[in-house]
Amino acid sequence: MRSQQHILNNLRNPIAIAASIQSRKRWEQFFIALGWFSLLVALLTLVFLVSDLFLRGLPMLNWKFFTSPPSSDPEEAGILTAWVGSLLVIFVTALVAIPLGIAAGIYLEEYAPKNWLLDFIEVNITNLAGVPSIIYGLLALGFFVYILNWGESILTAGFTLALLILPVVIVTTRESLRAIPQGIREAAYAVGSSRWQVIADHVLPYSMGGILTGIIVGISRAIGETAPLITIGALTFITFLPDPPIQNEFPYISFKWIWSPFTVLPIQMFNWVSRPQEAFQVNAAAAGIVLLVLTLAVNGTAIYLRYRFRKSIKW
Fold first, then answer.
1. Do 46 and 147 reside in the same domain of the chain?
2. Are the beta carbons of 176 and 131 closer than 8 angstroms?
3. How far apart are CA 18 and CA 30, in angstroms?
4. Measured between alpha carbons, how far is 293 from 299 in angstroms, rounded to an integer?
5. What pLDDT is recorded for position 15?
6. The domain containing residue 270 runs over which residues?
7. Do 141 and 154 have their domain in common?
8. Cβ contacts of residue 100 below 8 Å, gap of 6+?
9. What is the per-residue pLDDT across 227-277, written as a single tens digit (0 to 9) for each?
10. How many domains does the chain have?
11. C-alpha angle with apex 110: 105 to 115, nearest 5 degrees?
């Protein structure tokens, strides 16, 4: 009672009210300044690191660096097998994770009955999104490599990274579908549309922008992953390319490349950084630039597609 009476007395006192407002404004300004300072420190650190990366690695970027395999001689070493392996692994990852993640998100949000089992699945999917990547590597080693006998192949790597980003795609898909107003569904049902027609013609196109955001986040994470790929046996030194997917003879398309051994850019960088020679450190910086540009290119493509989807949708 005394504390309530004290508060009421303060509220009746204009001077106390003004002092309280000024105190809150000062704290607000302090936290705004602290936020700007933290943002400035982060941006300056990022600019410094990226600038150092480009200053060290840019002179190494030439046609020979892109078309040469790794070598024990830093002057002859290149990233041919690494960037080809990265593209092939990410292609398999996207081919598996994107349709499977979107389909699972649609089912869980639009079709699955709302019961305790769905709640249990939701909790587990959310928890899987935060599991360390090395756990997925151990899972893939035991299941894909030893049980299914896929070996240390591009297929194993693609499925491993697909499992890694699948929870992110599922959660983002569900949140995007949930954000669509219920009135759109009801209007479509009112003109005789089936449930699948409502989803395919109305709900899914409207939510595609948010779904693509989740895909961008997942693919960006997959491109830079190293631990799960090393766990399943990715090579740190490989001088030959996988079999080409297009052949000169019938049936002209070959899938032998999915069973080929591989390496990726992050592993190649790790190999060079671990060596004492300064020239290999420069090579690692150049490979870092390529990885950064590759990540931005994939993100830029996804952002462009998201923009096109949003522009084509009229509410």
1. no
2. no
3. 18
4. 10
5. 67
6. 61-312
7. yes
8. 162, 166
9. 888 888 888 788 888 887 877 777 778 888 889 888 899 998 888 888 888
10. 2
11. 95
At residue 313 the predicted structure's pLDDT band, cuts being 50, 70 and 90, is low
Rounded to 10°, the helix 278-312/265-273 angle is: 160
Question: Is the predicted pLDDT of residue 11 greater than 70, yes or no?
Answer: no
Q: pLDDT digit string (tens) for 138-195?
A: 989 889 999 999 988 999 999 999 999 999 999 999 988 888 888 888 888 888 888 8
State whether 71 and 36 are in the same domain: no
* C-alpha–C-alpha distance, residues 137 and 86, integer Å: 17
The model's pTM is 0.83
Q: Specify the long-range contacts of residues 207-210, CB closer than 8 Å, at least 24 apart.
A: 207/173, 207/176, 207/177, 207/179, 207/180, 208/176, 208/306, 208/309, 208/313, 209/176, 209/306, 209/309, 209/310, 209/313, 210/172, 210/175, 210/176, 210/179
The contacts of residue 81 (CB under 8 Å, 6+ apart) are 69, 70, 238, 239, 240, 241, 262, 263, 268
User: Could you give the count of Cα atoms lying within 13 Å of 190 in the half-sphere of its Cβ?
Assistant: 6
Q: Do 29 and 81 lie in a common domain?
A: no
CATH of the domain at 151: 1.10.3720.10
Tell me, yes or no, whether 37 and 6 share the same domain: yes
Show the tokens assigned to 205: 């196109």
